[in-house]
Amino acid sequence: MACESDAQSPSYMLEAAFRAMEPVSSFISLARQTGGGSLTEEIQSIILNIVIETSMQSGIRCNHTYVKNLLKKVIVAAESNYNIVVEGLYEQFANIALVQDNVNSDDNNKIFKMISFLFPCYAMNLHVHLHCSLNMLEGDTGCALWPSSLLLSEVILSYPKLFKDKVCFEVGSGVGLVGIALAHVGASKIILTDGDTSSIKNMKYNLELNHLNSEKVSCKYLPWESASESELTYCNPDFLLGADIIYDPKCLPHLVRVLCILLKQKKQFVFKSADTHQEIALQCDDRKEDLVLEELDAPVAYIANVIRNKETFDNFLLLAEEAQLSVMDITEKRRPMNLLPYMLSFDRKSVRLLRVLYKSE
Ligand SMILES: C[S@@+](CC[C@H](N)C(=O)[O-])C[C@H]1O[C@@H](n2cnc3c(N)ncnc32)[C@H](O)[C@@H]1O
């Protein structure tokens, strides 16, 4: 398929930033960058069109408080730069200013974002719809979107072959973005887990929004404190994933115990067909000479995390060491493509990527 070249055209980037509900200051910086340093009339017209078109599309639910704020700041930024302000911007702002803000503060915190992963080839772009909260603490932090899941999703989408046809198990999945990226690259089975019930409910909703069925991607309530060995080992994952899960000192011993059980699973031996190398569920009457015994690799964990508190992170490393886990920082080695070039608020340098393995004797 031919690649269209406008994947990162100014209007495409600004639209992606608008739909991802980038903070207004980041959106204006992007608009300025796009306009060669100022909010030219052309850039203002692009913004106006994006706002008008988006509000007219029925499937898109935009938060009018955000739109009102954005239009106001665009006008102020253009005026203070002595740019001519495009007439329609005032009109659009006046229209939206008449709409009353949502008075229910709980609902007001809930937003719909569209996170667009932009590939060099337009046809490969992935648009993920997410229902999430503006309150970072809602649902024990699991209803908000965190930067590490953006980076981990970029890693997954940048190295699709690594995860294709693999069983993946995520801990502390929150809004479910990583699971959606795994489904996109063809992981065979995806198990998303979280210890907060409202986050699980929201995650399920997000999977529906992105048309993912529960056979391929399942959600499971799994608090680290009480997760039993059988709950963790039943699915024999190839990969274990986690984004922004190392932050609460109280939870660390439980998290390390969970990682250890998942990663410690003994290497599996499975019978595969000598011809096709497909795994075979062994029946008594199978001819053993047609089969080969193959060793499966032990699971590997990829954890993306922002180190907000060095003491907490060092404590995680210490507990991991005591539990025979080897933790390697592979941020540079597995550097992903920049698939979110419009997201100026995303500080990808703040996220570390760790590979965790169980040290076999
Ligand atoms: C900072 S959020 C990150 C969410 C998501 N991975 C992301 O990056 O957007 C941490 C997640 O870990 C979950 N979590 C925290 N403590 C937990 C525990 N003890 N057991 C299971 N999940 C827990 C929270 O519910 C939340 O979803």
UniProtKB/TrEMBL annotation:
Highest taxon of the source? Answer: Eukaryota
Gene3D superfamilies named in the record: Vaccinia Virus protein VP39
One Pfam entry name: Methyltransf_16
Q: Which SUPFAM superfamilies match?
A: S-adenosyl-L-methionine-dependent methyltransferases
- Indicate what this protein is called per its UniProt record: Uncharacterized protein
Query: Origin organism of this chain?
Result: Vanilla planifolia
Organism lineage: Eukaryota, Viridiplantae, Streptophyta, Embryophyta, Tracheophyta
